[in-house]
Amino acid sequence: MTDAQKTAADSSLRTTGGAPPDDGGSSATEAPIPLLEPRDGIPSVIADDTSLARTIAAFAAGSGPVAVDAERASGYRYGQRAYLVQLRREGAGTALVDPVACPDLSGLGEAVSGVEWVLHAATQDLPCLREIGMVPRRIFDTELAGRLAGFPRVGLGAMVEGVLGYVLEKGHSAVDWSTRPLPEPWLRYAALDVELLVDLRDALEKELDRQGKLEWARQEFDAIASAPPPEPRKDPWRRTSGMHKVRRRRQMAVVRELWEARDRIAQRRDISPGKVLSDAAIVEAALGLPANVHALASLNGFGHRMGRRQLEQWQAAVDRAKALPDARLPQPGQPVTGPPPPRAWADKDPAAAARLSAARSAVSGLAEQLNMPQENLITPDTVRRVCWEPPGSVDAESVSAALAGYGARPWQVEQVTPVLVAALSVKNS
Predict the structure, then answer these.
(1) Dihedral (CA of 345, 347, 349, 354) sign
(2) Measuring CA to CA, how many Å separate 314 from each of 12, 309, 311, 404?
(3) 140 with 221: CB under 8 angstroms?
(4) Spatial contact of 387 and 424, defined as CB atoms under 8 Å apart
(5) Integer Cα distance of 135 and 132 in angstroms
(6) Residue 10 has pLDDT above 60, yes or no
(7) How far apart are alpha carbons 200 and 425 in whole angstroms?
(8) Residue 138: its pLDDT value, please?
(9) What is the β-pairing status of strands 138-141 and 116-119?
């Protein structure tokens, strides 16, 4: 049993609140205890400027890290905006903030910007938090910490149970958080999501330190906090599920037209695009190239429950694609900026294929030795790029420089360079 697993809170924390003792108290044989209520009760939702101002003052005066979480309405609403923000800090308690009623939370973000934010799966929440003015300078990601520490299950519920000995009720994770007013059971769930985040952070920090990985984790956290907002995806319609079935350029044009029409409707109505028209239906229409509304209605996804007007708008999109001149049809694939797909390496460059095979095996072995997922040790894309175009001189200095050039953190460079130097020296037999 790891030190982190030994660091469990006592029964008073599990049921009524309180800080976990320094020496732990739970054993591996104890059954996990359900965490049913926030230690301070369910707070009222902050939905006006006066309440928000009080919350800002309370969190600015608090101490220690601040636990932060956000709830979205994925699958229900357009985009990935936040519909509830949860925070907890020593001395301030738990706050549930409605970013619909209070869309500018930059004051709250600034009040805690100088302290460490504790999030679980930070890259999922940071974009929507950034939209409402909440941008951390330092973070601790409990999910990523769990990956680096070698935990086999890193969801929040699994981590809280495995490390602290409590069971979080996760039944409301996929509800429509745009609902107003939010039901009390949902608010209880939301408050509990930040209830133990700082306790979990403290236990994971001890475990990472014990394994000699704490500095590695800090480098990863700094990279996430300092990363610029992602660029908008080019040709997002190409990610339509089932796109691999669409091979002809005219069919691809149908996918593009339908996807873009669906996106405009979904944005205007503020609903998930999948609720307007499914990806499967888009692909069916692209493959079938229906000649008219009647033919379109016979395809899966365009059934009897779809009205004539809706069918006509989708058929119009199909007709626009069919009428495009060949010069305006989409190309079969996006421009390739990196190496070709690995399956093509054996034909294109057998020596590179041999290097990649050796590198994958070496990285896999090292990741197993370090007890962490391979993708956290080094990204597969970085390995492919270095193997496809290795540095002119295959030595530690050159390989380290190449890895750093592709964005690898110093700890990754230090760990991976030796095995990649050996892999890049492999000769194709």
Answers:
(1) positive
(2) 59, 9, 5, 48
(3) yes
(4) yes
(5) 9
(6) no
(7) 43
(8) 98
(9) parallel
Q: How far apart are CA 372 and CA 132, in angstroms?
A: 34
Nearest one of 37, 33, 9, 35 to 22, comparing CA atoms:
9
Supply the DSSP string of 29-77, one letter for each residue. TSPPEE--S-TT-PPPEE-SHHHHHHHHHHHHH-EEEEEEEEEE-TTTS
Neighbours of 86 (CB within 10 A): 23
Judged against a pLDDT cut of 60, whether residue 222 lies above it is answered with: yes
Percent above pLDDT 70 for the chain: 92
Distance CA 283, CA 179 (A): 32
Task: Return d(Cα 161, Cα 167) in angstroms, integer.
Answer: 5
Q: Note the pLDDT tens digit of each residue in 20-64.
A: 333 333 444 578 899 999 999 999 999 999 999 999 999 999 999
Q: Which domains does the chain have, with CATH numbers?
A: 3-226 (3.30.420.10), 236-328 (1.10.150.80), 342-424 (1.10.150.80)
Alpha carbons 276 and 289: distance in angstroms, whole number: 20
C-alpha span between 44 and 172 (Å, rounded): 18
Cis peptide before 181 (omega within 30 of 0): yes
pLDDT per residue as tens digits for the range 59-116? 999 999 999 999 999 999 999 999 999 999 999 999 999 999 999 999 999 999 999 9
Whether the model pTM is above 0.70: yes
